[in-house]
Design goal:
Helix 6 (155-173) packs antiparallel against helix 7, helix 6 runs parallel beside helix 8 (207-226) and helix 7 (180-202) runs parallel beside helix 11 (267-277). Strands 1-8-5-4-2-3 form a six-stranded parallel beta sheet, sandwiched between helices. It has a two-stranded antiparallel sheet with strand order 6-7. The relative contact order is 0.11. The protein is an alpha/beta fold. The chain has helices spanning 12-15, 17-23, 38-48, 65-77, 89-102, 155-173, 180-202, 207-226, 231-243, 247-262, 267-277, 283-293, 310-318, 330-342; strands at 5-8, 29-34, 52-59, 82-87, 106-110, 121-126, 129-134, 142-145. It has two domains: 5-150, Rossmann fold; 155-342, Up-down Bundle (Dehydroquinate synthase-like, alpha domain). It binds nicotinamide-adenine-dinucleotide. The site of nicotinamide-adenine-dinucleotide has 29 residues, from helix 5, strand 6, helix 6 and helix 10. InterPro entries: ADH_Fe/GldA, ADH_Fe_C, Alcohol_dehydrogenase_Fe, MAR. Residues 9-147 form the Alcohol dehydrogenase iron-type/glycerol dehydrogenase GldA domain. Belongs to the iron-containing alcohol dehydrogenase family. Pfam families: ADH_Fe_C, Fe-ADH.
Amino acid sequence: MPGSRVVLRAGAALDAVPGEVERLGLERVLVVSGERGAPVAGEVARALGAVCVGVHAGARMHVPAEVAGRAVEVAESLRADGCVAVGGGSAIGLGKALALRTGLPLVAVPTTYSGSEMTPVWGLTEGGVKRTGRDLVVLPRAVVYDPSLTVGMPVGLSVVSGVNALAHAAEGLYAPGVSPLVALMAEEGVRAMVGALPDVAADPGDLAARGRALYGAWLCGAVLGATVMGLHHKLAHVLGGSFGLPHAETHTVLLPYVLAFNSPAAPGALERLGRALGDSRDPVGALWGWCGRLGAPRSLGELGLVEGDLGRAAELAVGTAYPNPREVTVDGVLGVLRGAFEGREPGVP
Ligand code: NAD
C-alpha cells in the first residue's frame, strides 16, 4: 500500500502546505479548485507566495474531459511543476486528471469526506460516460487535512459526505483479500466518523469533531485506495453516471440496502461493522437509524430517480464483472433498488 504524507490539524492549509510543497522540491505550483472553493484556494495561494504561479477554479463534478484539457493548458502555459488541489472530490479529481496527463506531482487539501485524496483512482467523463482507472501517478504525494476548512460545510452535506466515506470502509471489509491492517483501518474509520458526525451536527463549528471526521475520512479513503469495491460502489456509479443522481446523497441512501443484501454472505465484515457502530445484533438497522437521526435523505425517489428507471439501472449494474460477496443478479439488484427507491426499512431481500 503506497503512502502519502499526511498532516491533520487546524490551520494546516495555510501553515503546512508551503512546507509540503517545498519538501517535494516544487517551485511553480498551480492551485486548482471548484468555483465555490475559489476563496479558500486563493488563501492557500497567498500562503504559498511566489511558489504559486496561478489559481485555476475550473473544477466540475465528475471531471469532464474538456475541463481536464483546460487545466492542462493552464498548467502548461504557466510552466507549472506541481499542483495543489483544494476542495472536495471534484477538485481533487481535477488535480488527479492533471497529474495523469502531465505527470505533475499533486498535493491535496480536502474539504469534504470523499476520501479521493487517499486513492490512486482517477475519473474522467467524456460523452456522458465516466471512465475510471488506477495509476500511482495520481496519488497525492502529500495530503493536508485542515478541520477549519470544513466548519462551513452545511450539516446536510457533512452527513452525506461522511456516509460516502463509511461506504468505502464497509465495502473494503468484504473486499477480496482484505488484509488485517486494512480491516482495522476500516473499523476505526467507521468508529471515528460515526462518533464525530452527531457532534458536527450539534455544533458545525466544533473543530475537534471536524478533526475526528477528517480522521475517519482519511482511514476510509485509505481503505478505498487499498481494496476493490463491490455492488454498492457499482450502483452509485451507475446512478450518478447514467441517471445524474448526486454522488454522496446516492451513496447515503443506498448503503444500508446493499449491506442488507450482502450481509448473509459477509458475516465477518458485518460483525466488524457492528462493533464500530456499537450494535453487533443489527448493524444495518443501526446504520439506517443513525442516518435517519442525522436527517439524511431516505429514498432514491427523493433524489430524482423515477420508478421506470429501476430495471435499466439493475441491468447496467450487472453488466460488468466486479467482486461482491453475494452473487449479483438482476433480480437481486432490483430488490436492493426497490427498497432504496421507496426508502422503507432495509431487510434482507
Ligand atoms: P464535490 O467535490 O463535488 O463537492 C460537493 C459540493 O460541496 C460542491 O458544490 C462543493 O463546492 C461543495 N463543498 C466542498 N467542500 C465544501 C466545504 N468545506 N464547505 C461547503 N461546501 C463545500 O463532491 P465530493 O462528494 O467531495 O466528491 C464527489 C466526487 O469525487 C465524485 O465525482 C466522485 O466520483 C469523486 N470521488 C472520487 C474518488 C476516487 O478515489 N477517485 C473517491 C471518492 C469520490
